[in-house]
Write a structure and sequence with these properties.
The chain is an alpha/beta fold. It has a single domain (about 30-245), classed as Vaccinia Virus protein VP39 (Rossmann fold, 3-Layer(aba) Sandwich), CATH 3.40.50. About 35% of the residues lie in helices and about 20% in strands. It has helices spanning about 40-50, 60-75, 85-100, 120-125, 140-150, 180-190, 205-215; strands at about 105-110, 130-135, 155-160, 170-175, 195-205, 220-225, 235-245. Strands 3-2-1-4-5-7-6 form a seven-stranded mixed beta sheet, with helices on both faces.
Length: about 250
Amino acid sequence: MTAAATSAGGGVTGFGAGATVPDVQTTVSGIATTIPGHAAAAAVLHSGIPALGLTAGDELVARLCRYLALLHRWNRRMNLTAVRGMEKMARWHVLDSLSIHRHLRGRVLDVGSGAGLPGLPLALALPALAVTLLESRARRVEFLREAVRATGASNVHVLHARAEDRKTEKFDTLAVRAVGSVKAVLQSAGHLCAAHGSVVMMKGPRAANEVAAAANMRGWHLETVALAVPGLDRRRCAVIATRAKGGE
């Protein structure tokens, strides 16, 4: 990818490997002045994160906005998300991802991470977590590595691989968003879940159909819990799969 143009403030405003993203200040300056909706996105995060039971410090909001700015730019060249605009991405992607934070523990694997969701926002908000972003597509892996670098997410590891090809690792929590059906996820990635771990799959209004289709799978216990995402009026839930007794 080519180098980007320089903003009036002196920071690089483009995207790609090696590009630097200016620091987002709490006064919404620098990078904030170059992307429409940046101030609104920051306001959404400042109000929405505490509603989820997390602390919305200025540094966290700045790093999340830096991630959204990078996502906004890369999205011009590759289809990372159909959601457009930083304010909308703040609600539909960041707050939605953070809504499962109470269901995570130990080593976390974000299966089919794509644009870094839900793993990267969770890692930024919960720095004590060790998060691995698993992605099979090379271009998206390039984005993930740049996003980790730009946000300074030192607790994140990016892994370029398919879940089906990883045989030995075990994780305490698998976090899955917009990857496949409940049954498909457990068939392709369930072996990566530790014996006492869980697979947390973020779902919408069709979750009940997916749970019914997976009900005959041996070795798993399924539970559905409602998720409340501030400012999002669509129905969200998490289907949590844990090992049934003797299921490993």
